[in-house]
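Thread title: Can someone regenerate the structure for this chain?

I was given the following input by a collaborator and told the matching structure tokens would be attached. They weren't. Posting the sequence so someone can regenerate them.
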Amino acid sequence: MANPVHLQVMLDQKRKAVQQARKALEKAQKNLETVEAEFRGWEEALKAMTAAAGAGSNSSPPEPARRGLSEEWKKVIGDIAMSHPQDFSLAEIASTAEAYGIDAKPDTLRGQMHHYTTQRNFLERTSPGRFRATAEGAAAAGVLLGVRPNPSPEEEDDGIPF
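Best answer:
Regenerated them for you:
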């Protein structure tokens, strides 16, 4: 018969191995999402170049492809626009992004906010480190600014308009 202490040690080792494998799987899944997004970008670029080449050399260069928000960022911007209609901080964006599984490293997040404020007009800067969703950003996220979906009974009866 096997020694129970030895079996417990083996069980603990296998539990640790399962935890490590799960962490590796999560990391690989995030990497896969990133690589797939990059792949789609390159694929769109190739299609645009192919279409431009087929249109003839006298045509003007094609407009760069304007992608919408990713599903994850739709959730982030929609959620934060609804929960913080006046404005929100970079830290609040980071916390909301992390809640939706987006790795919100400070440099990456600052770059994303710069892109969304200067190039895409999804957000506007209200003051250093604070932002507000624009009507265009809210529409891209699928929400209406100033309209809260399904208010609770307490919110409906408080007499304070939203």
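Residues 1-59 form one domain.
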